[in-house]
Amino acid sequence: MSVVDYLSEFLASLAPHQVALVVAAATASLLVIEERRLSLLPLLIQYLPVDPLASSRFYRPVIFARIGLGVAVCLILYVTARHVQRELDRLVRLLSDENKISHVPVERRLPSASLTGMGLIFRLMLVALGGLIAFGMWRTYPLATVPVRINLTGYWLISIGLLLTLTSVDPLRMGFGVLTFVNGFEGIYLCLEQSLVVIGLLGVLNILVALGVATCSESWLESLRAETSG
Amino acid sequence: MTILALVILPVAMGMVVLLLRELRAIAALLSTVTLVAVGILAATLEHDETIVILGRSVGLSTQGALALAFCAILLAFMVLHAYGVSGDSRLFPLTLVATGFFAGAMMVRNMAIAGLLLEAGMVAAVMLIPSRHPGSAMTGSRVLALLMLSAPLFLLASWAMEGAADDSNSAELVRMSGIALAIACALLLGIVPFHVWLPPIFLYGSSLAAVALSVVLGTSVLAHFDNAVRAVIWPGGAEFFSILALAGGAATAIVAGLIAVPQRAIRRALAYAGLADLGLILVGLGIGTRTSTGAAMLHVAYRGIGVAAVAMALDILRADDLEHLRGGLRRAPLAAIAMTIGGFSLAGLPLTAGFTTRLVLYRALAANHPGWALAVMACSIGPAWTFTRCLVATLVSTPTSGARREPLLPGLLALLLGLVLLGLGVYPRLLTLLPKEWLATLGV
Asked: Which positions in chain A touch B112 (Cβ < 8 Å)?
């Protein structure tokens, strides 16, 4: 049995609501996990097929292309996440040493060292707020032509993505938010429009956004380095 | 099949230039030649040429061809300028890729595909923002996050308009999709109240990024909007879009004109002057007569040249505020002259190209809404005041070390753009040298 067949069988064995639950839970963890490299795992899970393409034999190759796209996006971002995390850890250590002399808290001098510049309770409240927004949107604007689980998961991704973007203080996390938002919308949109050209272009857009996030993050790291050394 | 070259050529050359980016001179030259080739191809294209790819019609209207040719040539100038002022060579391939996507967005008739190509071009253009300037990276990611909000709006609008337009029961849905399309375009154009993202790009990004996102993106969005509205429109839709363009344009011209007055940061003032000019373009399109539409289209070009000339000049003068402009005329005479002419054209002062089209647009607006015309004219004093202060600052004599000389190539490029604006302002009949087909499109 080839890997593709094995993967096909595995995906087929998953119930749609199970996939939706895994995607929703993973996305919520994006708001809680501090380690940037680890945050890529929930992002990768978002590329799992929740949409009806999964049940169509015709679109089976597209599902693998989409998972491949997720891997490509996460690989692009992994390189940047590794740079950012390593550099921030180094700067935190450097500032902690200086802190012994200047007594200025590290969090104040380098707010991006922590997740949102806020504590765990704030982040958990954000997750709750995201849930409320998603549920509220689903109750107010239920899309008749979209299955409930996809509709709700899509709204959940959109709200968590927007909250992550709004509360982040560094380009990489903002990028995670933007990609989550885009994935949420794609999940819903692919129920309405299943043109292969559109699916392909959405993939190109995902890659470009990942490259844009990587470019901004590397440039931000450069300026942070210059700022702390100056 | 020539039409496909307009998309494939810049993207393919972008990949080549990416590999050669360490050889700055070759990368800049290849990029410039490619952009000029795209401009010439677009300008000389048979406008009836429409092909069908994967069941989708691909073609370029006369307006689209003019817009694409103008954007490509302007970007060629900007690439040469970036090379001359030692700009990052990473910018060259990104500019080419963005041009390819924008060209695709102007050519594809299918709204969803065109919208996605427009978004892809926008993301590539956003990647031009990060520079050595602290704050540019955060500006880039904020702009990316904000502008990506337009993607769902475009896709939903296209789905509703193309899928449900024939169904009489879904008239409300189509109307809602029209609103979504209008909001998405307004967001990408940066008109009031979505104007907040544009000034930081001028402040922190390179001049290439500023021109790509304020001029080229704006022109592409207008072309895409024109295609979309022509393709599918519901009863009363034309009036709806006219009112939106008129109201949004007048609000943008008034608010941006007023905000430009107190600015001491010249790049920020330039951003607001460009926005105010964009407002006037929308006013012209909203009025919708042949004369006003033609003048608005011509104003798109004059605005683009004006923004590019001033942005290039500010790069050469290395001036962020009025203090740094002091002695500019002595230090960098070519750039100072280009900045003055470009700025005055943006403000619509007489003897510049901007004045000729502004006059037509003011008249058209006054014929329908005299009160609005007065308000818009009064607020155009904002950019005029700002650029007059800039001119005065450059005239002030200050001691110079003499070590920093004006770079010749960027200075000449900026001056050339300035002289084009001056020439067309003093002798507008120069336009009659253009092909008759173009003149008919521009309503000249």
From this structure: 193, 195, 198
Measured distance CA(B257)–CA(B347) in Å, rounded: 9
Whole-model pTM above 0.80? yes
Residue A4, H or E segment: helix A3-13
| CA distance to B167, B311, B393, per residue, from B230 (Å) | 18, 34, 47
B138, A202: Cβ pair inside 8 Å?
A: no
Q: Which of the 8 DSSP states describes residue B434?
A: S
Measured distance CA(B282)–CA(B286) in Å, rounded: 6
Q: What is the ipTM of this complex?
A: 0.92
The answer to whether B295 and B443 are in contact (CB under 8 A) is yes
Compute the radius of gyration of chain B from its Cα atoms.
21
Residues 6+ apart with CB under 8 A from A221: A83, A84, A87
Residues 164-203 of A with CB under 8 A from B: 165, 171, 174-175, 177-178, 181-182, 185, 189, 192-193, 195, 197-198, 201-202
pLDDT tens-place string over residues B197-251: 999 999 999 999 999 999 999 999 999 888 877 766 667 778 888 899 999 999 9
Would you kindly state where each structural domain of chain B is located, as residue ranges?
A: 1-233, 236-444
- Per the CB < 8 A criterion, the answer to whether B406 and B327 are in contact is no
pLDDT tens digit string along A114-164? Answer: 545 567 788 888 889 999 999 998 888 888 888 888 888 899 999 999 999
C-alpha dihedral (B432, B438, B441, B444), degrees to nearest 10: 0
What is the spatial distance between Cα B284 and Cα B376, in angstroms, rounded to a whole number? 12
Please state, in angstroms and rounded to a whole number, the distance separating the CA atoms of residues A189 and A203: 13
Q: Which residues of A touch B145 (CB under 8 A)?
A: 165, 174, 177-178
Determine contact: B402 vs chain A, CB below 8 A.
Answer: no
Of B265, B180, B263, nearest in space to B225 by CA: B180
In terms of Cβ atoms closer than 10 Å to its own Cβ (0-12, 13-18, 19+), residue B168 is exposed
